[in-house]
Specification:
- It is a single chain.
- This protein is of the alpha+beta class.
- The chain is globular and about 40 Å long.
- It is built from 5 helices and 4 strands.
- The chain has a 4-stranded antiparallel sheet, with helices on one face.
- The chain has a single domain, classed as Muramoyl-pentapeptide Carboxypeptidase, domain 2 (2-Layer Sandwich).
- Helix 2 crosses helix 3 and helix 3 runs parallel beside helix 5.
């Protein structure tokens, strides 16, 4: 990703609206299938119109925007990296996004290898032989950019869709 990736956008956290007001009976919860229906139907439409590579790039960029907004609005970016990552683990679990674990951390160099089990995007998908968590790559990169202002390369190296039982991401500053 380039340093300017995702910096020119109009979306803001407030665009999500007042969910308590708008959903007094149904509230915050919805089935994972509904989320995936939206994501994978958008991926299909984008792929048919622009090709798989562009669809992946668009999902990655939208993930970056979402990650940045989540970080800015729900996490404390003043904490040291280790404490910030602990808070991020809790937030991802609380929101039902996944169970994040840190496999490797070079805190000084800010390179990481993390896993996300029970990933909202792919856990339980049929094996296709291809990683599918482009949105997650952008989401993680956006969170880390919001945390310290640096651009990060996030690459999914294992995925449920490739036959693994967890998603694994290699993360390094650009």
């Amino acid at each position: 990703m380039t340093p300017a990736f995702g910096t020119q956008y109009d979306f803001q956290w407030t665009d999500l609206g007042d969910i308590e007001l708008g959903r007094p009976n149904l509230g915050q919860q919805m089935p994972v299938a509904v989320y995936r229906l939206a994501q994978y139907s958008m991926r299909e439409a984008l792929s048919k119109r622009y090709g798989d590579s562009v669809a992946s790039d668009i999902l990655r960029e939208s993930g970056w925007i979402a990650g940045r907004e989540l970080c800015v609005n729900t996490l404390d970016t003043s904490k040291p990296l280790s404490a910030f990552l602990a808070d991020l683990q809790s937030k991802l679990k609380e929101l039902g996004i996944g169970v994040m674990r840190i496999e490797h951390a070079d805190l000084e160099g800010q390179s990481l290898t993390i896993t996300v089990s029970e990933d909202l995007d792919c856990s339980g998908l049929p094996v296709s032989g291809t990683t599918v968590c482009d949105y997650d790559e952008g989401f993680i990169a956006g969170i880390l950019h919001a945390y310290n202002g640096r651009s990060f390369s996030v690459k999914e190296i294992d995925c449920w869709a490739t036959g693994d039982r967890t998603c694994r991401f290699a993360i390094a500053p650009e």
